[in-house]
Design goal:
Radius of gyration: 16 Å
Largest sheet: 8 strands, mixed
Helix content: 25-40%
Strand content: 35-45%
Distance between the termini: 35 Å
Structural class: alpha+beta
Number of strands: 8
Number of helices: 2
Mean pLDDT: 91
Low-confidence stretches: none
């Protein structure tokens, strides 16, 4: 059995990660899951959440915004709208977005057309703040 897997994380704008890893955890539509070398092939959708990967004994954390996760033959391809490494997240900007989304949601009801938009914005901001807290600042 292989000791590593190939991980590629791709957004519409660029390839964010392209490396060999030992372990990956992500947030799927049905909850968090983990993948180790030799994992059975599968494809799932991702929701707004965190993806972490381990390489050379180090763990990196990323905030993801919707997408797909596929593993086959020890190769993982993650296609997402956005992917931000923990150390790249502007915490103050994420907290400001969190505050704006909370304020807007207080003014809306669940029946309003914009409610889901601001609910997703709130979730994105919360994940970004959470993931940024795990950054190893260099």
């Amino acid at each position: 059995m292989a000791e590593k897997m190939k991980l590629e994380i791709v957004t519409p704008y660029k390839k964010v990660v392209d490396m060999e890893v030992e372990e990956v955890t992500a947030t799927g539509k049905l909850g968090e899951f983990g993948v180790l070398p030799g994992h059975a092939p599968f494809l799932t959708s991702l929701r707004i959440g965190e993806l972490a990967y381990k390489y050379d004994g180090k763990i990196e954390h990323m905030a993801l915004n919707w997408g797909y996760f596929e593993i086959k033959d020890d190769k993982i391809i993650v296609l997402v709208e956005t992917a931000e490494a923990a150390e790249e997240i502007d915490v103050e900007r994420a907290k400001a977005a969190l505050g704006r989304a909370e304020e807007k949601l207080k003014q809306l009801t669940a029946e309003d057309k914009q409610f889901k938009v601001y609910e997703a914005a709130l979730e994105r901001a919360m994940i970004r703040v959470q993931v940024a807290g795990k950054a190893v600042r260099r």
